[in-house]
Predict the 3D structure of the following.
Amino acid sequence: MKKLVSLAARQKFRFDLGITLLPVINLCLLAVACSGTLSYVCGLPPRVLVPAVVAAALAAVWLCGWALDKARFPQAYAEESNRRNEMLVRAVEGKDDRRV
């Protein structure tokens, strides 16, 4: 059971990373919703095309999160954020006059 919870947490983490792709997904869904010609070109009725695009969008979000996870993006983001935090840099260097 613990492995299943760990697996679910890892997949949610990847999905949360991939959610940065959401504006692109919204644009694709808008194009599908506004264009009847897209269903004509694909040869699929809208009731089939829209769920397929939604499923593909969710898969793309997860895949983007997986790629960012494998590229160690969260660690690089945290390191960059720490590098830009002047108070943290001073505290680490021992130059902070305030004592906690």
